[in-house]
UniProtKB/TrEMBL annotation:
Role according to the record: F(1)F(0) ATP synthase produces ATP from ADP in the presence of a proton or sodium gradient. F-type ATPases consist of two structural domains, F(1) containing the extramembraneous catalytic core and F(0) containing the membrane proton channel, linked together by a central stalk and a peripheral stalk. During catalysis, ATP synthesis in the catalytic domain of F(1) is coupled via a rotary mechanism of the central stalk subunits to proton translocation.
Its membrane topology: Single-pass membrane protein
Domain of life: Eukaryota
Similarity comment: Belongs to the ATPase B chain family.
Protein name, entry field: ATP synthase subunit b', chloroplastic
GO cellular component, one term: proton-transporting ATP synthase complex
Length: 221
């Protein structure tokens, strides 16, 4: 048990000396440093003895500090304060790392996942569009074939209708021409009959007139 206490006291003393050499301004309070500047040796020794609770190593450290001239010690402490490397920078670095980890978990990872998912969705849509390009081309070819067939069918129907209409018109024209010719022939025949009758009537009248003239000119014997 005593060996353990001595080892603990020795470790505490070593740690204190290391802290004093690395960061005097934090290891020794400001009041003690002010008392060092004023050469208040007894009070400093008592406080150091109080801080370093009874142990042989602590007493030796206090005696060494007491043996050192106070102005020189204060000057060394002030010079060491220029190189005051404490745990502030590691703490800031640790906080920065923790902040980066938190941002990565909270913001960057979800954002990256969202961007990746969106990129994958866009790529999938582009793939679907590329895959359907063949179907679109096939549908366009089918539509062109249907339109071509429809045009051919419509053209054939128009030609057939034109032929039928032309034939019907020719038939009607032929019938009309025949009817007109028949009516004309009948009219000409009627006119010929009337002319003959008129000539006959005229001949009879001429004969009567000639007989009358002869009877008037030549007296009867």
């Amino acid at each position: 048990m005593a060996i353990t206490v001595m080892a603990s006291s020795s470790a505490t003393t070593t740690h204190f000396l290391r802290r004093c050499s690395q960061n005097p301004s934090r290891a020794i309070p400001k009041s003690i440093r002010a008392q060092i500047a004023r050469d208040e040796k007894p009070l400093l020794i008592r406080r150091l003895t109080t801080l370093l609770k009874p142990s042989a190593a602590a007493a030796a450290v206090a005696a060494a500090i007491a043996a050192t001239p106070m102005p020189a010690l204060a000057e060394q402490i002030e010079k060491a304060a220029l190189f005051d490397f404490n745990l502030t920078l590691p703490a800031i670095a640790l906080e920065f790392l923790l902040l980066m980890v938190a941002l990565d978990k909270i913001y960057f990872t979800p954002l990256g996942k969202f961007m990746y998912d969106r990129d994958a969705a866009i790529r999938a849509q582009l793939g679907d569009v590329k895959d359907t390009s063949g179907e679109v081309k096939q549908l366009e070819e089918q539509a062109a074939a249907v339109m071509k067939a429809a045009r051919a069918e419509i053209s054939a129907a128009l030609n057939k209708m034109k032929k039928e209409t032309t034939a019907e018109l020719e038939q009607k024209l032929a019938e009309g021409k025949k009817k007109v010719e028949e009516e004309l022939a009948e009219a000409l025949a009627a006119l010929e009959n009337e002319r003959e009758e008129a000539l006959k009537a005229l001949d009879s009248q001429i004969k009567l007139l000639s007989d009358e003239i002869v009877s008037k000119v030549l007296p009867s014997a």
